[in-house]
Amino acid sequence: MNPRIASIYSILFVAISSAKVQKKAHTFVFFARKCYFCRMKERINWIDWGKAIAVIGIVFVHLPQSQEWFYFRYLQACVVTIFFFLSGYLKKDRGSDQKNWGKYWHSLILPYLLYNAIVYPYWLVKYYMQNGSMPDLFQAMRPIFGTLLFQHENSFCEPLDGPMWYLPAILIMHIIIDWCRKTRYPHQMMIALCIVSFFLYAANKYYMFLPNLTPMGVFRSLPFYYIGYALRQRGLYLGTNSKRELITFIGGISLSLLLFYWHLHESRFLLHIALFYPMVICFIFGLLSGCKLLDGIKSDIIINLSIGTLVIVGLHYPIVSLVNFALEHLFNIDNICYQWYEALIISLGISALLYPVILYGKKRAPLMIGHRS
């Protein structure tokens, strides 16, 4: 073969081979990126366990039980803080205010309005049964004003779907962290705001200048939200270790109970308030470490309960009222008060009753679970 022709063939062969290698490389990179994002979208199983347990706990503490019972007051104080910690832990930087507000609109604002709208007919029926007539315009607008003012209550408004107060509280916390991230020292700003929130919470407990739930929730729970956010930002509290989690679970819950006992019986006001925070922090890490012990157990029921926390929080309160009403009339009881085991059975039953609604929301109405349609 002519040497010149041979050299041309050699150049063409190298070029074609190089193109194939490059194409394979691009293909590999594409699939690598795809697999990476698939992993990013995978659910974190211990967080699903934490949210599922917490949402059942929310139903449990909204069932009437004696305020003299230690366990009941303990859970009332602690259980909702799991959602604030996890909201901070799962907080993502979407890079622009437009993207952030798009997420907030579908996951927080619209579901808040939706569930209050769903509960409003129940409020009308309840009003009719209690008063023997339908409300006039002023009375009918009171829960609507209460909803727009984040479940506020005064002479011209009242809460409608009270448990949903935590959605505007989380929205406010997201806005605070978004603003702090634009500053030169975001973490220092957040720490300062958490300190301010402690004193505002103490002042509000003493003077009751903002009695509605959302401001109190922000003042009280901003530190727990920030702790979750800071841990995830620094890549902490990610892995699991059975021995460590067992020690943290037992130690955290035990220390939390001791601190809560001290908190209840502490007469000095500022120390009484200050004890609340280490008590809740121990509870959060104790409970979530227990959830990490369950990390190897994957269940579609737990995942769906986690996905459907909005459904249960948004709709359980009317069902609790109906259950109370039915049992009071069935057994001729005035002001029913449940034992812990009765409340646990009923809370599990209400969660099971709402489970098909969660499945419906996943398939047909994603707004109900805080997702885009």
Strand content: under 5%
What overall form do the CA principal axes indicate? Answer: globular
Fraction in helix: over 70%
- What is the N-to-C order of secondary-structure elements (H for helix, E for strand)? HHHHHHHHHHHHHH
Structural class: mainly alpha
| Uncertain regions spanning at least 5 consecutive residues | 1-40
Counting H and I runs of at least 4 residues, what is the number of helices? 14
**Overall pLDDT confidence:** 89
Number of beta strands: 0
Q: Count structural domains.
A: 2
Q: Gyration radius, to the nearest Å?
A: 26 Å
Q: Which terms would index this structure?
A:
single chain; 373 residues; mainly alpha; 14 helices; 76% helix; globular; disordered N terminus
Descriptive account of the structure:
The protein is mostly helical and 373 residues long. The protein folds into 2 domains: 1-42; 44-240 and 295-369, no CATH class. The protein is built from 14 helices and no strands. The chain has helices at 3-41, 45-61, 70-78, 81-89, 97-131, 137-148, 166-181, 186-207, 213-233, 242-265, 269-293, 300-307, 309-330, 340-363. Helix 2 (45-61) packs parallel to helix 13 (309-330), helix 4 (81-89) crosses helix 9 and helix 10 runs antiparallel to helix 11. It starts with a helix and ends in a 10-residue tail after the last helix. The model is unreliable at 1-40 (pLDDT under 50).
Describe this structure in a few short sentences:
With 373 residues, the protein is mainly α. It contains 14 helices and no strands. The N and C termini lie far apart (66 Å).
